[in-house]
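Hi again,

Forgot to attach this to my earlier email, sorry! This is the prediction with xanthosine-5'-monophosphate bound. I've pasted everything inline since the attachment limit keeps bouncing my files.
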Amino acid sequence: MDIHAQKLLILDFGSQFTQLIARRVRESKVYCEIHPYNTGEKSKGGLIKFIKEYNPKGIILSGGPSSVFDKGAPRVPKGVYGLGIPILAICYGMQLTAKLFQGKVERSKHREYGPADIIIKDSTGLFHGIKKDKIKVWMSHGDKVATAPKGYKVTAISANSVIAAVSNTEKGLYGVQFHPEVVHTAHGKHIIKNFTHRICKARSTWTMKSFIDTTVENIRAQVGPDGRVICGISGGVDSSVAAALVAKAIGKRLTCIFVDNGVLRKNEGDEVYKTLTKNFDVKIKKVDASDIFLKKLKGVADPERKRKIIGNTFIRIFEAEAALVKGAHFLAQGTLYPDVIESVSFKGPSATIKSHHNVGGLLKRMKLELVEPLRELFKDEVRVLGKELGLADELIDRHPFPGPGLAIRIIGSVSEERCEVLREADVIVIEEIRRAGWYDKIWQAFAVLLPVKTVGVMGDERTYENTLAVRMVNSVDGMTADWVRLPYEVLERISSRIINEVHGVNRVVYDISSKPPSTIEWE
Ligand code: XMP
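Structure tokens for the complex follow:
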């Protein structure tokens, strides 16, 4: 079965929700890719030629921040609508459709943002099988469509009489002003599935089971019968799942390299080793380089310098270890789909990418060919895949952990002693939120060791020891975050255990800042 045969194409106009559209389509078990609206613009045949070659079962036009009244507003050629391929145009996509086909778009000074009720006028097409006349949807738009595009009829209106959905069923063309891809839209998944399955007639071929079969074959084909692959594993989900997939394809011809940089969590190396070797016939080289890293970090307080030192030292050590693996010509990496989209976005690469994420230099120098088995996947798909491959839940559902590790959670200079203090406190934080059933409800929870000593009293004695901050946040993608309202009892247990059990800490504080303006990490 070809998992890519039944695919949709999403043309992106820059909406913050575009990736959500792709995730919803894939949840309906149909593969899709996001491409900029102006794809093919510079080549002969343009977008139309690109679409014909891509051969999608359906097209989704995303929303976007522009107004059709803007000079140079983004648009697709009218011909896209005449290819006989069903189209779902969302928000800006629908306004553009109205503009292109003699509908009327009205400029609006006020953005309608948030929940709204819509009344369904026609319960076929996108609304097939929704038993209610009125549903809650998520709106986020400025301009609105005042008259439907020619040939379309209105299939839903919002409570304040804005056209909420239109369709031209004969041609398979649909438009919605609201955002079915956002979880706050009731029946959003259902609406997307009506489009993918009923309107586009795509079949459910995109499952992680079939993904594994296809990818294993692809890896074998790329690497050949004797090719050898190396893979750096960090203990994170992406590199572990990538390694597991490559191991499934080529077994012992994969060598994983795990570098202990001395700023890992307690038992981190052992745990990664255990979970990977339990399920896979894989070679793992553990390299204890903690002395080297800690020596280089000695006396360094500046966060960016810490990052650079850790990044560069890692590359050097990894290169040396990789060179010892005879005959390896391939490097496996856990690159995900959002990184791929980012690099082809018409807006250009995002400024938010951090310097340390960029280990590109590593590759150029080593002349290795990349194996990137997760390039097509979103993070949530990687998790499902990891489970399907038999990796332990604790590894799959782990909170994100930064590359520079505890070094950026020890404010001021890093030493083995301070690492030890933080490691012990970190374990307690995690143990206690797991015990209280909160671990899976939190994006990231950790401790930060501050360069602040305060006075305390223990028994009859005055103490003068370190202060430790506890940080817990919820987030969807790490870009924004809110501090977790953890029950006082859990906070109390964390605080009293740390003060009693961790030598060198006599005060615990809880961080109640959100991002922005604060960041998740303290450094
Ligand atoms: P900030 O602190 O920027 O963190 O709000 C957002 C997310 O990124 C992680 N983070 C890093 N990850 N290397 C990494 O691999 C880094 O240098 C780094 N700095 C922050 C952070 O843990 C959070 O998940």
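Residues 307, 354, 356, 400, 402-404, 444, 478, 515, 519-521 surround xanthosine-5'-monophosphate (CB under 6 Å). The longest strand covers residues 444-458.

That should be everything now.

G.
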